[in-house]
Amino acid sequence: MPAEIHNGQRKRHMSLFSATMLGATCMMGSGWLFSAQLTARYAGNWAFLAWILAAVLVLSVGYCLTRIVKFYPVRGATTRASALSHNGIFGMPFAFANWFGIVAVVTTEAQATTQYLSSAIGSDWLIENQSLTVLGKALAVLILLVYLAVNFYGVHLLTRVNNVITVIKAITPMITIAVLLYATAQLGDPTLNFTMSMDTDYGWKSAFGAIVSAGLMYSFNGFQVSVAFASEVKNPERNVPYAILFSVIIALCVYLTLQFAFMAAIPATELEKVGGWEGLHLASPLLDIAVLLGLNFLVVLLLADSVISPSAAGYTYLGASTRMLTAMAESGQMPRWLSKINPVHNVSRRSMFVNWILAAILLVNADSWAGLMVIVSGYHVISYMAAPISMGALEPGKRLLGTLVFTMLALAITTLNDYSLQMVNISLTLLIVLYASLHIKNGLIKLLLFTVPFLVFLWCMYFISATWINAVIAATFYWFITSERYVASCNTYAENHMSDGKP
Question: Where exactly are the transmembrane stretches of this chain (predicted)?
Answer without folding.
Answer: 16-34, 46-66, 87-107, 134-155, 167-187, 207-230, 242-266, 286-304, 422-440, 447-480
